[in-house]
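PT: before anyone asks, these are the final sequences, not the draft ones from last week. 861 residues across everything. Please model them as a single complex and drop the result in this thread when it's through.
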Amino acid sequence: MGEQQNWDWEVGERLVTDLAEWKKAFSDVYDEVVSPDGEKMGAIVKGEEGLTCCVNGSAWEQTYEKVYSVKFSPDNRLTAITMADDEWTTVVDGAPWEQTYEYVWNLRFAGRGGAIAVQTKGDDGYGICLDGKAWEAGFLQIRDYVLSPDGRRAACSVQTKELAEGDIFGFLEGGWSVAVDGKPWDRNFLNVWGLAFSADGAKVAAEVRLESTVYSIAVDGKPWDASYGCVWEPCFDPKNGQVLAPVKIESGWILACDGKDLWGRSFGQLWRPVFSPDGSRTAAIVSPSFGRWTMAVEGQAWNATFGDAVTDPVFSPDGRRLAAIVKDKNRWTIGVDGAAWGETFDMVWRPVFTPNAKRVLAKVERNGKFALALDGRVVSGEYDGLYDPVIGPEGDRVLVKALDGGKFYRRVLRLGDL
Amino acid sequence: MATFPEREPVEDIGLDETIKKLTPERIEKTILKVLNEESAARLKVYVNTCVHCGLCSNACHFYNSHDGDVKYAPVSKVKDTLWEMIRKKGRVDGEFIRKASRIAFTECNVCRRCSMYCPFGIDLAYLILTVRRICHLLGVVPQYLQDTVNSHAATLNQMWVKPDEWIDTLQWQEEEQLDEVVGARIPLDREGAEIMYSVIGPEPKFLPQLIGHMDQIMTVAGMSWTVPSLDGWDNSNMAMYSGDFEIMARVERKHYDKALELKVKKIVMGECGHAFRGAAYDGPKWLGWLRPPVPLIHAVEFYYDLIHSGRLKIVKKYEEPITLQDPCNIVRGKGLGNKLRYIMNATCSDFRDVEPRFEHNYCCCAGGGVINCGPPWKTTRVNGNRVKAEQFRATEAKVIVTPCHNCHSGIEDIVSNYKLDMHVKFFCEILVECIEIPESLKV
Ligand code: SF4
Ligand code: SF4
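LR: through. Structure below.
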């Protein structure tokens, strides 16, 4: 993880790079990305030799036939998936991983160590390659995967049994499981979805389908005793390792904890349970009545409801406050502790709290331009492009990464000045 | 294999084998659960309101194509299935369930044409879908349709497409288009793009060139767009038609989650009717959304906007005599008939409309999951739509435009069975022939 205290928090502005210069050097520049610390801009560039990546104007040495999925890792390394001579691999800061594959996709990062993982198709089947180390056995097929919070482990939904085309009875016997670090659970299910690691990375939970119409949550391969008509993605309580999941019962959707009703009430819909950082409070996105959406904290729904959607719930660092993206009548804004900001936008991004939980900041879009809004008020200039704002460790500064007239600037502003 | 007298026997393990495992108790319990707990109040209203007048009969292409055989009348299909279950309070046997399943899955496209002819507006398709729900809960679903639903469940797409195959197809189509149009990249997972483009599973599997056409259209029109590289890219939903509403909801939720995650302003979807219905109405409703959380635009509406606004310039007209199919789910369901005719007239010099047309047009007989019941039921489907063949023949057109995948495949079968000497095309195939590629974009 990028250690934010080591970043440059001097108040001021720096021109990091000018894309006009890049465009002189390369015939094509696309998929621009910015490092979390705002020190680098990366992109795919096309030169005479082929495609490669470029960081702050300097291209990687090697070129490729294909480059995609360009991203900066949390510790500011530019990473991409590349193909040359029909061999696919992952390249990190210009250095390719040794192992190559028939195909590579779904690049992810995790953990303080800056773990990098991809999904792979090789001669012996499908698997995961984590920090250059591939799973031993290949699978028939793999779908979604997750990394443990420390980035050391990977879990993936895997197909464990061959299924002939149209074999509807074979399907009912169950041919899917979860593989953790390449080793499948010893039990199969009809389907598995929605994997989650516990905070310590020791356990994995998933939604499982036991029969065609019977669903449950399994932890390390063992389903809960209770089963349901439908379930959504589980998550672990960070303080005690208990598993929470939205489940559907006759009266509606409830938040179940290890098979028991946690909040003692149901909603028309309920998903994405989240915990406060210390694990003491839970919240989830709920629909208290048809077509209305809001947040429920400890089972108590906000009074304000929204017609279109609620997404991205975020607790404040002290766990006392909750913010989320809300959308009503096709306009977006931020809801905080039950009340929506007065202004609405064409789009808003995931809100961030200051460390003292007093203020909420979000990137917003209006008329094709991007700006920062603080507690509901637009406080910055408008930019052609803006990347996720970061509030400094002291909570008094904000890092603004902005693209303006083809130039990428790194600005550190005092929150108090906004 | 037991048969019921009035229909030719058709083998399908999804019906024949599955009924063997049913017990009278399970059947009764399942039917009562659906009738008492799951069905909306309108079910009772419909059942109590119907006066058995038979006015809905002439609406149905099955009935008309079988010269008024009463067993294909909409009301008969409901009477022989759901009413019987209600009358007997769920005490029906496995053989009855097989018969009900056959009728509900293979002899009704849930196209809703009949509702327009019923003096009370009874939604017979809803009643047939209730029968399908019961059949799903009992596990009695035609094999091919069930296999498709299994694919939705396992892969969140309709055709068992693996994640690498999907991205590989996009990259291949991009490469093809880059040879034609400058900058015709298919932007993967571009957060904050204006549009997320989604397709149905059969496109990467069998018709990848359609993705290429859309790439060209987006590029020439200068749109800000993206395509998800991971699950959520498939907007189709056969689970909606098999009665597996839990899987239906899971698929739709993933589709919208992807759009919300990519922070797009809208979803534009390819030319498919049932996918529009699932994503615009049935899926959101089950999940609790009054309307999609991200606006959903069908390709026909999108093409209309591009042509009408001048973002795409039509420089050449398609000259062969051409007609069209009104896909039920976007024309009867959403009223896109005028926009469809606008784009046809804008691009074709000899457009010959069908009769009846707009919301009164006949269903293709492939929709509603019927074509997904697979080869065993092809004859039922093709024989059930002679009227469609007659309708097309009368236009003397050479080409039929079908802005829907089910219509496309179903009408191809009709063309070949009734020897129509016509070709079936998606609208985008016409459009790419007619648009101006600006000099600056020419390779
Ligand atoms: S196919 Fe269409 S017209 Fe015929 S019964 Fe079904 S919904 Fe009604
Ligand atoms: S037209 Fe309406 S009332 Fe008459 S038989 Fe059909 S469904 Fe019943």
